[in-house]
Write a structure and sequence with these properties.
single chain, 59 residues, elongated
């Protein structure tokens, strides 16, 4: 950070955030410009239906 050589990041943070967001039925978007910088927006539903329990499994 701060003036050193460029980082060689694998970008796992964004990948993990996307996977969690998708798993919850949402979406993640990114917008970038020189004035505002980079903005990530996460959209999640208020509620999602729980899957039906499997037959023979206790609830």
């Amino acid at each position: 950070m701060g003036g050193g050589p460029a980082s060689t990041s694998l970008g796992l943070g964004l990948f993990i955030a996307r996977e969690i967001t998708l798993a919850h039925g949402g979406a993640i978007t990114v917008a970038s410009d020189t004035r505002s910088g980079t903005v990530f927006t996460v959209w999640l539903p208020e509620a999602i239906s729980a899957p039906a329990p499997l037959a023979g499994c206790p609830v």
